[in-house]
């Protein structure tokens, strides 16, 4: 049974995982949250596959899933810090109300979640063009892919953003 195997992994390795995460985050509450998120991701993957995942090295697997969650956590934290810095630099005339700030933060979190759905190379292409202002040729050279591939990835990313905007 799917849940029985995961329950056993949880019982045997949850404490270790929380310690592992604490060493990376320095906060026991965040470590506990990300440990729970790790097991939730594994449960979702098992349910999607319709079978128990065979974990021959559970700690290595847990560390891999958790490492991705830690990376996402720090990326979101960096995004929020950049947003707050930008708000602090706005002249008082253009300052956003608390409600507008909340709406902007929600939108940024939703966009961040959208970026998580992109393949890593598509996300890299999109961020290099949109945030770093690189040309398609520069992105192609940096990533070692063709310019046509960069154009195709940007088209896919922009289409997802347009559909996101229509849903929002």
From TrEMBL:
GO terms for molecular function: DNA binding; sigma factor activity. One of its GO terms (biological process) is DNA-templated transcription initiation. Residues 10-78 form the RNA polymerase sigma-70 region domain. InterPro entries: RNA_pol_sigma-70-like (IPR039425), RNA_pol_sigma-70_dom (IPR014284), RNA_pol_sigma70_r2 (IPR007627), RNA_pol_sigma70_r4_t2 (IPR013249), RNA_pol_sigma_r2 (IPR013325), RNA_pol_sigma_r3/r4-like (IPR013324), WH-like_DNA-bd_sf (IPR036388). Residues 109-161 form the RNA polymerase sigma factor 70 region 4 type domain. Keywords: Sigma factor, Transcription, Transcription regulation. It comes from the Bacteria. Transmembrane segments: none annotated. Belongs to the sigma-70 factor family. ECF subfamily. This is Sigma-70 family RNA polymerase sigma factor.
